[in-house]
Design brief:
Blueprint lengths: L6 E5 L2 E14 L2 H8 L9 H8 L12 E7 L16 H11 L1 E7 L4 E2 L18 E10 L2 E10 L5 H6 L1 E2 L1 E8 L20 E17 L5 E15 L11 E4 L10 E6 L8 E2 L5 E2 L6 E14 L1 H5 L1 H14 L10 E10 L4 E10 L5 H6 L6
Parallel strand pairs: 3-18
Antiparallel strand pairs: 1-2, 2-3, 2-6, 4-16, 5-16, 6-7, 7-9, 8-13, 9-12, 10-11, 10-16, 11-13, 14-15, 17-18
């Protein structure tokens, strides 16, 4: 996998720390065998048709190592009310802190990711044989240190749902999470996360999968949502280790501690009929293309102790704001630069998205982040 790490970028005199989210779409050679054990093998025409498509097995992208999605966030978020010149009052402080207590990261694939299955099918659009998609994970690093990691795979205890209903479910198997290493407070001011000031830290994750396909009567189904998943993880400070991390690994056949709500249809194969060497028209369905969208939300609340000390905190914020004249980000235009390419060495898709105020984006920054069109 290609890891971009953390970079200090100086753009137009502003120093910003760049964090990288990498979202992995896992694949599995064993999954298709597990599904087959629960379902009688279907008779399918091989011979010429099998030979015709045997060459495609080695050319399917994303099979060996999975897909990779990278999201780059310059950590520049508006603090809104703090840059105003209104009189000091509690309402302004409350509004500012309310904005700081929520941070959202949106990760989208730029174009369709191919090969939900390892080979075309001669049996139908919803034939699960050769299914390789096996789940989704997301990683954020600070240099060489992992500050956030979540991994979900297809729930092996519910494979019967693929056979009976053409749907699959996910189960959370690995989690590394630290509120003190999160994106909260969502501000450029020098205010670290503290459990004395913040409570009820919660991370939530929404995963949406969609697809477009052509059926056998030449009807195009465009950007149809196949399913969604939701994960909600409240963090109790008492379960954190000495370094402030929540670490969880689900052992095989163990009931998950954190539920993944939702379900998703397997990706419909697109119709791709053709004529064989005898000029007989044959029905065939492809390997499945789909799009992925991941939304990560971090949220918390203010403690009673912090709220009671709001006047001193407000004074500190005003002093810090006056020292930094670059905080008027609410009035700036945001720009998103994205790129998706196939990495032959790692056998994976790499999707990079750079989000920042427009005035920070420069050709030099785009080049250094590998977002040019070379």
């Amino acid at each position: 996998m290609m890891l971009l790490g953390v970079t200090d970028v100086n753009a137009q005199g502003t120093s910003d720390k760049v964090t990288v989210y990498e979202t992995f779409v896992y694949t599995s050679d064993q999954l298709a065998n597990d599904i087959s054990k629960l379902n009688d093998e279907r008779d399918s025409s091989r011979g010429y048709l099998g030979d015709l498509f045997s060459a495609t097995t080695g050319s399917m992208k994303g099979i060996a190592s999975g897909y990779v999605t990278s999201f780059i966030d310059l950590g520049v978020s508006a603090i809104g009310a703090l840059v105003t010149r209104n009189a000091r009052h509690k309402k302004e402080w409350e509004e500012a802190v309310k904005k700081e207590n929520v941070y959202q990261t949106v990760i989208n694939s730029v174009s369709e990711m191919s090969d939900f299955y390892d080979a075309p099918s001669f049996d139908g659009a919803m034939d699960p044989k050769g299914m390789r998609f096996d789940g989704i994970g997301c990683l954020r690093k600070d240099g060489s240190d992992t500050t956030f990691y979540i991994s979900c795979h297809i729930d092996r205890s519910k494979l019967y749902r693929i056979i009976n209903h053409s749907k699959f479910e996910l189960v959370l198997d690995t989690l590394i999470l630290s509120p003190t290493h999160s994106n909260l407070p969502n501000t450029q001011l020098s205010i670290p996360f503290s459990f004395e000031d913040r409570k009820n830290f919660t991370l939530s994750m929404d995963i949406n999968i969609s697809s477009s396909w052509m059926n056998e009567i030449v009807q195009l189904q465009k950007n149809q949502e196949l399913g969604s998943f939701h994960i909600n993880i409240p963090v109790d400070p008492n379960v954190l280790d000495s370094k402030g991390f929540l670490r969880y690994v689900r052992h095989q056949d163990e009931a998950p501690k954190y539920r993944v709500l939702g379900e998703c249809f397997i990706v419909p194969r697109s119709y791709m009929g053709f004529r064989d060497e005898r000029d007989n028209f044959k029905d065939c369905w492809g390997t499945g293309e789909y799009k992925l969208s991941v939304i990560i939300n971090e949220s918390c609340e203010v403690t009673d102790q912090y709220r009671a000390n709001w006047k001193n905190d407000y004074k500190y914020r005003k002093e810090m704001t006056q020292k930094n004249k670059e905080l008027g980000l609410l009035e700036q235009t945001w720009q998103v630069v994205s790129k998706q390419n196939w990495n032959e060495i790692t056998q994976s898709w790499v999707i990079t998205t750079l989000k920042a105020p427009a005035k920070i984006i420069s050709n030099d920054l785009i080049d250094r982040m590998g977002l040019n069109d070379k």
